[in-house]
Design brief:
alpha/beta; Arginase, Chain A; 8-stranded parallel β-sheet; two-stranded antiparallel sheet; 9 helices; 10 strands
């Protein structure tokens, strides 16, 4: 599985902010030493953005400025966010993994989604943009420690997408406590651990009609790792087991980075996930 990455995404940082470029800088350096192939993306088109987001929201990101305490703005944020979305789109086309920032699964149609207090470090919903572009029957498997409220808002009731999320409660954004229509949510307590997590994942996948799925997009947040921002007390081995379960479905797959705030853990967890998928 090839890694989609651009050093341009390292250029924006905010002093003291947890969503630092160091997380993907360190991860990319480790993965390169491990022998992974890297591919450079292009920014996504405005046409692709408008398949997911309102014109007003796209124009607001273009203008930059301040969004909220979690999600600062800058005069170049539109380029960074468009590049990250372009990485997700390329990952979907190549069946690769996009290791870019900013993340995306909290971004809704008009920005802040489903009553959340902030945008949660997200500007454009990278996964949603990729899925709308490829226009296939898609299972989005969101393994970030936080619920992807933006992704659910965008795809609730959308006939070509099934959304499955396993996430920590109580935790930001405070959504995803119940399932609705084609969005299946599995809230989990602190200290869940590998065994309960994988048991819950097995249960979650039974809710999906796999005969109706052409491709799987993994919203791969690694902040459920032990000690991370939304820890479910998972080890790197758990991500290998997640990969194995996805491989057993015998459906094409791609991945997009969401959370995960230790570069070393991102590299280890992603490597284990790809090992489980047994790709490349």
């Amino acid at each position: 599985m090839e890694i989609i990455f651009s050093e341009d995404c390292l250029d924006y940082s905010y002093f003291g902010h947890i969503e630092t470029s160091e997380r993907v800088k360190i991860a990319s350096e480790i993965l390169k030493k491990m022998g992974y192939s890297f591919v450079e993306p292009e920014p996504v088109s405005e046409e692709d953005l408008l398949r997911v987001h309102s014109k007003n929201w796209v124009e607001r990101v273009k203008r930059g400025g301040f969004f909220d305490a979690d999600t600062p703005g800058s005069k170049n944020i539109y380029r960074y966010a468009s590049l990250s979305a372009g990485g997700a789109l390329l990952a979907a086309n190549m069946k690769g993994f996009s290791l870019l920032r900013p993340p995306g699964h909290h971004a809704g149609k008009n920005g802040r989604a489903l009553g959340a207090s902030t945008l949660g470090f997200c500007y454009f919903n990278n996964m949603a943009i990729a899925v709308k572009h490829i226009n296939q029957r898609t299972l989005i498997l969101d393994i970030d420690g936080h619920h992807g409220n933006g992704t659910q808002e965008i795809f609730a009731g959308y006939p070509k997408v099934t959304y499955v999320s396993l996430h920590l409660v109580p935790e930001f954004p405070g959504t995803g406590l119940t399932s609705e229509i084609n969005c299946f949510n599995f809230p989990l307590p602190p200290g869940t651990g590998d065994k309960l997590y994988l048991k819950t994942l097995d249960k979650a996948l039974t809710h999906v009609d796999m005969k109706n799925i052409e491709i799987i997009g993994i919203s791969a947040g690694f902040d459920a790792h032990q000690g991370d921002l939304a820890s479910l007390d998972l080890t790197s081995n758990c991500f290998r087991e997640i990969g194995k379960r996805v491989k057993d479905l015998e459906i094409e797959v791609f991945g997009v980075l969401e959370g995960g705030y230790s570069g070393e853990n991102i590299a280890s967890d992603l490597h284990h996930l790809i090992q489980g998928l047994d790709i490349g």
